[in-house]
Design a protein that fits this description.
Elements: E1 12-23, E2 27-34, E3 44-45, E4 47-50, H1 57-69, E5 75-82, E6 93-103, H2 104-107, E7 118-121, H3 132-147, E8 161-162, H4 163-174, H5 180-189, E9 193-200, E10 208-213, H6 215-220
Parallel strand pairs: 1-6
Antiparallel strand pairs: 1-2, 1-4, 2-3, 2-7, 5-6, 8-10, 9-10
Length: about 240
């Protein structure tokens, strides 16, 4: 029996990272960079690159994120595959998109200056190349959906934080208002945060207590987080 030979289309495999950060004064932001190669060299885009022969898409995304932030172990999640034949004007390129969550203040000093990267409000960013704008919009929806299931938004906060800080973050993400008392009871009941013997005196006379994440319980209880909001319907794009 003669084995059939199949002709496979030639294409490039790349990853793009939608890097999302949080600033208490300016809200949620997305990191935009200047593209360093043709086509569209110098245009605004997401951080990305091609997958090398000896690495998985997950390894490629981690490498690209490390090149930019100098850090490892940042929260990152695979989001979607963008594969429209005409998405790249030069060559057929399939992109696996990831979103990453980082604390802006914690990592700002470690950002590589070689990429000319800049933070923009996630609801008011400039025009991006190819379908990168679609990626950012999908990332916003995915973060909303995932944050209703478990506490991944804690990745955006500093090492110690107050409950009002956590509440403001959720209010910004969902564009809603929460009752502080109810919100406090819910997040404390998760058992994922530890109360510290220290208060934030800068924002009130009495001062709200600081908390930190219980790292062990955070990892173990990632799927047991109580919902703070109704889970939004997540839409995928073909």
């Amino acid at each position: 029996m003669i084995a059939k030979r199949y002709k496979a289309a030639k294409l490039l495999l790349a990853v793009d990272c939608i890097i999302i950060g949080y600033d208490e004064d300016d809200g949620l932001k997305v990191l935009i960079t200047k593209r360093g190669f043709e086509p569209h060299k110098g245009s605004l885009s997401l951080m990305g690159g091609f997958v090398q022969e000896d690495e998985s898409v997950e390894d490629a995304a981690a490498r690209i994120l490390h090149d930019l932030t100098g850090l490892e172990g940042v929260y990152m999640e695979q989001m979607h595959v963008f594969s429209k034949p005409d998405r790249d004007s030069e060559e057929r390129t399939v992109v696996v998109a990831f979103f990453a969550l980082i604390d802006i203040k914690k990592y700002q000093n470690q950002m590589s200056t070689g990429y000319q990267s800049k933070w923009f409000p996630i609801n008011n960013y400039p025009e991006l190349i190819f379908d990168h704008g679609e990626m950012v919009e999908m990332a916003k929806e995915r973060v909303q959906y995932r944050a209703a299931q478990h506490p991944l938004l804690l990745e955006l906060l500093p090492g110690k934080f107050t409950i009002p800080q956590v509440m403001r973050l959720y209010e910004v993400l969902y564009n809603v208002k929460f009752d502080l008392g109810n919100f406090s009871r819910k997040i404390i009941s998760t058992g994922l945060i530890i109360k510290l013997n220290e208060r934030d005196k800068a924002n009130s006379k009495k001062g709200a207590y600081y908390y930190k994440v219980d790292e062990k319980k955070y990892q173990e209880g990632f799927r047991r987080f109580l919902n703070f909001v109704n889970k939004p319907q997540f839409k995928t794009k073909n």
